[in-house]
Amino acid sequence: MKLSTCTYPASRQIPVSSIPPKDPARTLVILFGPSHLLDAPGPIQTVLSAYAGSATIGCSSSGEIFGTRIQDDTLVVGLLEFDSTTVRTASAQVTDPEHSFDAAQALAKRLMDPALRGVLVLSDGLGVNGSELIRGLNAVLPAQVVTSGGLAGDGDRFKRTWVVKDGLPVSGYVTAVGFYGSAIRLTYGSKGGWDLFGPERLITRSQGNVLFELNRKPALQLYKDYLGDLASGLPGTALHFPLAIRHTQQDAKRLVRTILAIDEAAQSLTFAGDMPEGAYAQFMRANFDRLIQGASDAATLAATPDTASSPTLSIAISCVGRRIVLGERTEEEVEAVFDVLPKGAQQIGVYSYGEISPYNTGHCDLHNQTMTLTTISEAA
Alpha-carbon torsion 225, 228, 234, 235, what sign? Predict the structure, then answer.
């Protein structure tokens, strides 16, 4: 496998001469960039026109990751030219969050094949119910197929996101690329590092990813009570205080959920994933050192011995909430990841509205407020 990464300013036209040459027939193009490329997709079109016929995938960001740097208003590109692995892309429209399951199921069916070994999924970050998306993927894809990816971002604006479909940035879609053949090597790791605080509360009324009541009290008002003066900045300020949910109080598995929107009239909160009635929710807050250590732990999980002897691309998908909370220390989490990766590995990534990865092993889960890594390499 041959691998290269590059980055360009997203606010001006990219010179074609600066794009590394590849054989489009065996190339996968992965790219990340700001949400305003919906209005001016020229830079994306320039890159992808140079690789007409290649498999392509990408999404909007809340900040782009290139090596150990975090950038804004740039286009970050990863180019993989495989020796033996074949790749195939698929997409499905999500016209309403309630259709997320059906869209994911349809997409997964298009990718299914006995030779399928892994799937990288990128989704619209606002008009999709992430939990239903995951449920649809898991209903079709076998547990041994490594499935990872994330939900597109839009900074702390929560206005619009995009994924690449047919060479253009579009909203309202979920896209994926499947990897086929015994040579592909895909690894993953996902860790958080947030501290729990306050009591666990029972989710007493919800519908899908919309939370109405905790302990029979309006969820939005409870959130405002905790945020105090920060409540005026909702939903953005809620990124500092995600919720951890688990199905029972004996369950060791906790998933983190981030707010995407609020409804004053209904006193409700809309999350990136489901908030099931009868589950338990608990507030979380940042511990800076633990967030950075969590990123390092994710890299340790992903950096298996199989990735050490061949060119390796690390795709880092971290939650925008981590970036906002860490502030000037954000690059420390990216550096902590890079320090653990195999020597010579290259890294691109995105700050997102949700991360997709198995919790430990098996089928994938939806995560928020984690650093999630996927490494791609090929056996010699």
Answer: negative
What does the longest C-alpha to C-alpha distance in the chain come to?
Answer: 61
**Which residue, 6, 72, 66, 3, is CA-closest to 37?**
72
Locate 239 and state its tokens.
Answer: 């990124």
Burial class (CB in 10 A: 0-12, 13-18, 19+), 202: middle
Taking the CA of residue 374 as centre, how many other CA atoms within 13 Å lie in the half-sphere pointing to its CB? 23
Residues 6+ apart with CB under 8 A from 228: none
| Residue from 173, 208, 190, 156 nearest 352 by CA | 156
Q: In the prediction, which pLDDT does 12 show?
A: 82
Confidence band, pLDDT 50/70/90 cuts, at residue 101? very high
Contact 34, 72 (CB under 8 A): yes
| Nearby residues of 32 by Cβ (< 8 Å), 6 or more positions away | 58, 59, 60, 61, 64, 65, 75, 76, 348, 349, 350
d(CA 151, CA 352): 6
Residues facing residue 2 across a β-bridge: 81
Q: Which run of H or of E encompasses 138? A: helix 130-140
* Prediction pTM value: 0.86
Which tens digit of pLDDT belongs to each residue from 294-333? 899 999 988 866 555 689 999 999 999 899 888 889 999 9
Contact 215, 280 (CB under 8 A): no
Strand order in the sheet with 173-180: 86-93, 173-180, 116-123, 146-151, 354-358, 364-367
pLDDT at 256: 87
